[in-house]
């Protein structure tokens, strides 16, 4: 009976810790559009912005290089999260949920 009660409590702990992990770490992938705006404002990759003269002699800042670098960061991060699923499945099968989650953190 004690094992059954502990198993039920362990499921709740696993659920709650999974929710905390999603709240803390899933925002990078799902909130990238908002985060890219903040990163631009903070000046990440701002050295790639150049001053350019337009057709009517107006000067503007071209930050296409900055946009490309931020897109590259997102592309690499999202692809790595897809490629890590195979080793992650191996760890789940051989070591269990708790050990895999601790290694992931």
Question: In total, how many domains does the architecture comprise?
Answer: 2
- Indicate the structural class: mainly alpha
Largest sheet: 2 strands, antiparallel
- The proportion of residues in beta strands is 5-15%
Low-pLDDT windows of residues? none
Q: Write down the secondary-structure element order.
A: HHHEEHHH
Strand order of the largest sheet: 1-2
Number of helices: 6
- The Rg value, from CA coordinates, equals 22 Å
Mean pLDDT: 80
Q: Helicity, in percent?
A: over 70%
Distance between the termini: 33 Å
Record field, number of beta strands: 2
Overall, the morphology is elongated
Description:
With 105 residues, this protein is mostly helical. It has 2 domains: 27 residues; 74 residues, no CATH class. 74% of the residues lie in helices and 8% in strands. It has a two-stranded antiparallel sheet with strand order 1-2. Helix 5 packs across helix 6. The longest helix has 24 residues.
Notable traits:
two-stranded antiparallel ribbon; mainly alpha; membrane; 105 residues; 2 domains; 2 strands; 74% helix; SLC43A3
Question: What's the layout of helices and strands?
Answer:
Elements: H1 2-25, H2 27-30, H3 32-42, E1 50-53, E2 59-62, H4 64-83, H5 85-95, H6 97-104
Antiparallel strand pairs: 1-2
């Amino acid at each position: 009976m004690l094992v059954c009660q502990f198993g039920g409590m362990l499921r709740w702990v696993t659920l709650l810790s999974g929710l905390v992990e999603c709240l803390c770490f899933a925002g990078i992938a799902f909130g990238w559009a908002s985060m890219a705006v903040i990163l631009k404002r903070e000046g990440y990759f701002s050295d790639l912005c150049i001053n350019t003269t337009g057709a009517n002699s107006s000067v503007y800042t071209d930050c296409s290089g900055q946009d490309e670098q931020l897109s590259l960061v997102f592309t690499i991060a999202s692809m790595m999260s897809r490629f890590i699923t195979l080793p992650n499945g191996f760890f789940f099968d051989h070591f269990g949920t708790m050990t895999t989650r601790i290694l992931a953190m």
